[in-house]
Amino acid sequence: AFGSNHGNEYEGPVAIKHLLGEIDIADVTGRLIFIPVLNPAAFHNGTRESSGQDGVNLNRAFVDGAGITPALAGITHRIAAFVRDCIWPRVHVVQDIHAGGSAHRFALCTSFHAIDDPQQSRTIEETARWYGTPFVMTYQDNTPGLLPSEAERLGKITVGTELGWGETVNPAGVRYARHGILAAAIRHRQLEGEVTPLGHHADGTQKLVAMVERACFVPAPFPGHYEPLMECGEYVDKGKTVGLLHDFYHIDDDAWPVKAGVEGYVLCQASRAPVPQGLHILVIAQEVR
Fold first, then answer.
1. Would you list the DSSP string of 149-190?
2. Is residue 116 exposed (0-12), middle (13-18) or buried (19+ Cβ within 10 Å)?
3. The domain containing residue 268 runs over which residues?
4. Which helix H or strand E contains 207, and what residues bound it?
5. What is residue 28's three-state secondary structure?
6. Residues 6+ apart with CB under 8 A from 24
7. What's the alpha-carbon Rg for the chain, to the nearest Å?
8. Phi, psi (5° rounding) for residue 226?
């Protein structure tokens, strides 16, 4: 289990720190590797990238030659190389605990990519459901250098999360992270103990959703200030205005309506009012079942 792949997301580090103090070593029947802070440079600076070092985003650093070729020999790519050399050969379950950082707020969810192997896909989905989050989300796998993508390609049971936002510690996010990591350790026979379903997993309200189609994403067409009209997690019809983008350089212009491109749930919105052009200010996830 990894925390602080990005340095300004804190639910993972807090949850893993708790578990390190709570698990009795006598109950460990396999191998547990818990890393509360995977990227210390980013974590100590409270930034997404390795500030003060090479400025690289670790969750884009899992590329060919990371930590080996001279052009990719900074500390962040060397961390990726360490994970490849020392972690991947020793684990079969990977949990990468993320949150929205400073840019986005989310309906709390676990996440994974769609894969071709149906049995492995069912195992991953079941592992993701045990966190208890309102949503279990599949997403596009076109972004290069992702830690979860590499783990999936290697055949690992891989689960990611979005368990908070705003560079804070979300109490529900910490609770879901602790439970999901512990459940995975027990259910995949690395730890003795019992675990029961939590939250939306327990009451049957968990939703499986997908944000794969391009129409799910709405980027800001100009730099402006975002006003949300709905909360993350709410259901919307296609074409519904979910927010407004204001241009204060053209004070007399009407705000630009930010409309849902598909029917589904508001999974993610910009968390800060000022947004740059091109930032995804709205993401709608379509219900799968």
1. HHHHHTT-EEEEEE---TTS--HHHHHHHHHHHHHHHHHTTS
2. exposed
3. 214-287
4. strand 207-211
5. strand
6. none
7. 19
8. -95, 130
Residues 223 and 279 in one domain: yes
Reply yes or no on whether the pLDDT at 289 is more than 80: no
Residue 50 lies in a domain: yes
* Residue in 241, 270, 271 with CA at minimum distance from that of residue 254: 241
What is d(CA 244, CA 259) in angstroms, rounded to the nearest whole number?
A: 9
Residue 164's contacts (CB-CB under 8 Å, 6 or more residues apart) are 9, 10, 11, 99, 100, 106, 108, 170, 173
269 in the same domain as 142? no
For the chain, the average pLDDT equals: 97
Q: Give tens-digit pLDDT for 130-150.
A: 999 999 999 988 889 999 999
For residue 74, what are its two tokens? 């900074």
pTM: 0.96
d(CA 180, CA 156): 16
pLDDT for 277 equals 98
Regarding whether 40 and 98 lie in a shared domain, the answer is yes
Statement to judge: residues 22 and 43 lie in one domain: yes
Residue type, 228: P
Is the residue at 2 inside a domain?
no
Q: Which residues contact 213 (CB under 8 A, 6 or more apart)?
A: 262, 286
78-101 mean pLDDT: 98
> With contact defined as beta carbons under 8 Å apart, do 288 and 138 qualify?
yes
How far apart, in whole angstroms, are the C-alpha atoms of residue 21 and residue 122?
31
Q: Do the domain assignments include residue 1? A: no
Output phi, psi for 172, to 5 deg. Answer: -65, -40
Instruction: State the pLDDT at residue 142.
Output: 84
Domains in the chain, number = 2
Strand partners of residue 243: 228, 258
